[in-house]
């Protein structure tokens, strides 16, 4: 009966499973001495603000904190055990897509008694996604190695992340930003996926990615004209209708940053127009960090589930995880113009 109950929950994916309370997590994880020492070494404190970046293709989650310079610096990169779907935004309930976009997580969105050890809700759908009619809810970053639209870490990994963000929120940060991307938004990676129908959306994500990369400061995110708009102060306050044309506004970016963004935008457009071949990804269902894929090959799904989580939830679709769609890509190179 227990096995049948577990199977039923797995069919419902991480949404249903994360709504209950786990008896295994009696209290939320706390910051370890090793993590605090690492923060100190990098000029950070447990109380300093935090920001999270997620990359699907690379199956990595980054935790950034403000250091003594007043800018964000990378604290740690965590390998992701499992994500589901394919590259591209989540649009409908049940599509198994892990979301892409800009999200903001407050203390009330942390779950210390998740069925997946501990978790935090990304807040999908956000204002833009709701206005576009996208459906689905309770999309999480959580433990174990099972995903049906969520980002699954190991229990140890999500425990560390949870403790870090919880301490920042307790110390006065109102909410922390999560930036979820299909891949690291370089011009070369954009070109590799130039025929993907999500390229117009990814161009918008890339602007936010570039602002953070160039300034190490959290971009201010607004929504209008059916897209994200960054670092803009609008006449009359924030746009009320995400689908309407953007009202008059003034960019808050410094002239030097505007010039850098223009240069990077041109670089990306040149790469998009000049590439001679594109990636041909044969997705089965999502991805897994290479370190976990090696573990899955070596130990099998059952032993791996025991190794990464005390809850021992089965690895979701292990055959699909082993398929590794990113290794089936065609070769890619930019077209060289005459004289180069």
TrEMBL record:
Q: What are the alphabetically sorted keywords of the record?
A: Cell shape, Cell wall biogenesis/degradation, Peptidoglycan synthesis, Plasmid, Signal, Transferase
> Where are stretches of biased composition, namely Polar residues?
328-340
Hey, what's the signal peptide range on this chain?
1-16
**Catalytic residues in the record:** 142, 150
Residue ranges constituting the L,D-TPase catalytic domain according to the UniProt record: 50-181
Keyword field contains Cell wall biogenesis/degradation = yes
Q: Name one GO biological process term.
A: peptidoglycan biosynthetic process
Task: Read off the InterPro entries from this record.
Answer: LD_TPept_cat_dom (IPR005490), Transpep_catalytic_dom (IPR038063)
UniProt cross-references to Pfam families, sorted A to Z: YkuD
Region Disordered, as annotated, extends over 319-340
One Gene Ontology term of the molecular function aspect:
carboxypeptidase activity
Report the family membership. Answer: Belongs to the YkuD family.
Its protein name is Murein L,D-transpeptidase
